[in-house]
Amino acid sequence: MNTTRLSAVFLAAAISLAGCRGRQPAGEFQPITLDTTDVAGKVDYSGLAAVLKAGVGPGGKLLPEKLKANAKILEGQLMLMTVAGPKTRADLFKSEHSKLNYWYNARSAWSLRLMLTFGRERLEDESKVAKTGEGKTREPARWEIADDGVSIEEFSNRSFPIDGRSMTLSLMDSLIVEEFGFKAVIGAPCVSPRRAVIPTKPFEANDAAKLIDERFNEFIDDENRFVVDVASRRILVPPVLWQFAERLMADHQQKYRVTGANFTTALLPHVRLSAHRRLQDAVGYKCVGAPEPKVPLIVKRAED
User: Fold this and answer.
1) Which residue of 8, 128, 237, 297 has the fewest C-beta atoms within 10 A of its own C-beta?
2) DSSP classification of residue 196
3) How far apart are CA 68 and CA 62, in angstroms?
4) Contact, 259 vs 272, CB < 8 A?
5) What are 253-294's pLDDT values in tens digits?
6) Contact between 301 and 250 (Cβ < 8 Å)
């Protein structure tokens, strides 16, 4: 797939962002490992399909108890994706859409796995503090989503195996920008409330450009993620998109030979239909970078 003319500079921005996040104290982010012994390399997203069908509702709503119940199925899916990806099994990923499907599905699966991992570790830490010597803490049966989770830096820089190598969500974002352009990373799924929603079924598109366009438009049209505050006449731009603001405005001014274009105007050529109308209605509003909330975790319900 031919990336846009901006891909190179957007890649530099993404790598810079990843590099800043990567400079954390050694040992702060414990890597996740998987035992892929005897796992056959093939393309099969049926495990992810089962997890998403059970654990994700409309609009990316996460169903904690269902996700916990399907954790082993998710683990099996991640094992498959570790041994068979665009790098390890290039023969299975010859088209651009098959590669994009893989990375979007990998980001969905690992976002869920990281949420489960951080949640379990928090429970273990709390159990250690509360332990009174009466034996092991029983496994709780009821769960909920807690907004007071982990920072996006910690979440994005926890390393894990994928496609035969060690990676993080931050590095995965850089790869997506390099391979498919900046719009593709905006639509990349995650459990973070400032990223594109987790789908209810795996990505199996046969047109990469169409999928990127659809996901980008859905993101701009999502009032919970791309917030247009009419009262204050402001647009709260999520960090994943805000990092590209200056370059997008500069490119827009050069391409259309205009001066003083704001971010809203620069975005208009990249969207259509409802998302385009939403931006058009907000022309003149001040664009500001939205704060990055913590990534939610699955935790034990307080009443249990």
Assistant:
1) 128
2) B
3) 11
4) no
5) 999 999 988 999 999 999 999 999 999 999 999 999 999 999
6) no
DSSP SS3 for 216? helix
Q: Which tokens hold the place of 38?
A: 């005897």
Rounded to whole angstroms, the Cα distance separating 262 from 117 reads 41
Q: Note the pLDDT of residue 10.
A: 47
- Contact at 8 Å (CB) between 162 and 81? yes
Chain length of the chain? 304
- Regions of the chain where pLDDT drops below 50: 1-27, 132-133, 140
Distance between CA atoms of residues 180 and 86, nearest Å: 14
> How far, in whole angstroms, is CA 188 from its chain's centroid?
5
Burial of 92 per CB tally in 10 Å (0-12, 13-18, 19+):
middle
Six-digit token string for 95: 């088209």
- With tokens 């997203």, the residue in question is 45
Find out whether 112 and 198 touch, Cβ atoms under 8 Å: yes
Phi, psi of 233 (to 5 degrees): 55, 50
- DSSP H or E segment with residue 264: helix 263-267
Q: ∠ CA 199-191-105 to the nearest 5 degrees?
A: 45
Listed residue (174, 241, 147) closest to 20, CA to CA = 174
Report the share of the chain in percent with pLDDT over 90. 80
| DSSP annotation of 58 | G
CA dist 119 and 299 (Å) reads: 6
State how far Cα 109 lies from the chain centre: 10
Nearest 5°: CA angle at 295, between 263 and 46? 100
Q: How far is CA 111 from the centre of its chain?
A: 7
